[in-house]
Each structure stands twice: as structure tokens, then as C-alpha cells.
Amino acid sequence: MKKKGKKMEAKRKKPAKKKVVKVKKGARKNELAELKRKMNSLERDLDAKTKGIERLKADLEQKEVELNRLRDETEYKNKQLAAKDVEMESYRKLTEEKIFQLEARVKELEGRADN
Predict the structure, then answer these.
(1) Of 13, 38, 50, 56, which residue is least crowded by CB atoms under 10 Å?
(2) Sign of the CA dihedral 78, 79, 85, 87?
(3) Can you give the pTM of this predicted structure?
(4) What is the 3-state secondary structure (H, E, C) of the chain?
(5) What pLDDT score was predicted for residue 113?
(6) For residues 109 and 54, what is the distance between their CA atoms, to the nearest angstrom?
(7) For residue 79, which of 90, 91, 87, 68 has the smallest C-alpha distance?
(8) What is the pLDDT of residues 92-111, one digit of tens each?
(9) Cα diameter, the chain
């Protein structure tokens, strides 16, 4: 029976031993230092990009203010031009009326001169 017992034990699978990779403390410190350098680099990049975005936002706001100023100025000038157009139209009508009256007067005077 002992022979069977040993065979049975041999047939049973033994749990696999976990492979433990031993890392030297110096290598871990180097890896940690490298990760810290990468993190610092990424933080600097993030800060630079954030400042760039803030500058772009400020530029955009400034351009929006300028655009609004130009829009208001254009609207004001358009109103002035519309008022001038109305004024010029009234002058044109007065001038045409005066020309009509003067032409009528000339005809009247020509008629008198012919008689």
C-alpha cells in the first residue's frame, strides 16, 4: 500500500511556487526617481499649456471687446448716415421744388417778353 500512496502523491499536483522577482532597493529608488521626474515634467507641461490657454482666453476676451466696440461704432455711424440720407432727401425735394418754381417763372417771363 505504501507504493500506491507514493504514486498517488506523485500524481497529485503540487501548488506552483510563485516566482518572486527581487528588485534591488537601488533599482526601485531609480525607478521612483524617474517617475517623479516624469511627473514633474508633465506638471510643467500642464502649467505651460494652462497659461497658454489663459493667454488665449484673455486675447479672445480682448478681441470680443474690440468687436463689440466696432459693432457699436458701426451702428452709430449707420444711424448718422440714415439721418443724413433723410436730410439730403428733404434738401433734394426742396431743390427740385425751387427749380420747378424758377422754371415756371422763366416761362412766365419769356411769355411776357414775347408779348
Answers:
(1) 13
(2) negative
(3) 0.51
(4) CHHHHHHHHHHCCCCCCCCCCCCCHHHHHHHHHHHHHHHHHHHHHHHHHHHHHHHHHHHHHHHHHHHHHHHHHHHHHHHHHHHHHHHHHHHHHHHHHHHHHHHHHHHHHHHHHHC
(5) 86
(6) 81
(7) 87
(8) 999 999 999 999 999 999 99
(9) 166
Quick one: cell of 82?
440714415
Q: Which amino acid is at 106?
A: V
Cell of 19: 516566482
What is the phi/psi pair of residue 16, to 5°? -70, 140
3-state SS record for 43-74: HHHHHHHHHHHHHHHHHHHHHHHHHHHHHHHH
Identity of the amino acid at 95: T
26-84 pLDDT per residue, tens? 788 899 999 999 999 999 999 999 999 999 999 999 999 999 999 999 999 999 999 99
